[in-house]
Amino acid sequence: MKIGELARRTGVSRRLLRYYEEQGLLRPVRLPNGYREYAEPDVASVRHIRTMLAAGLPTTVIALLLPCVHDDGDGMVPTACPGMVSNLRKERERIAGTIERLQTSQRALDTMLDAVRPPA
Questions:
Q1: What's the total number of domains in the chain?
Q2: Which domain, by its residues, includes 58?
Q3: What is the chain's Cα-based Rg?
């Protein structure tokens, strides 16, 4: 299928599909005319990529983990691969740190807002 068809079937823009290719997440066949030709498994791969992006994983980690997931009909199912658990734990710690920093920022803003609000 061409990139337009993959975009239609996945709801992901052509531009993002090209970006996924640049990041090594998708590897379409290049036809002699330069067009990209995607296969049916690429539809599931795009869904997996979107799921992992929604989980906060960067594309560098997704590239490592993408071969470790498959579809079971209801969605993405991870299988144990070398490094999968350690990569997921590392990313979870990174996200937890970000959440903590954002909560600190939120508390600081709340303090400032409390200071400038007129008394009720």
A1: 1
A2: 3-116
A3: 20
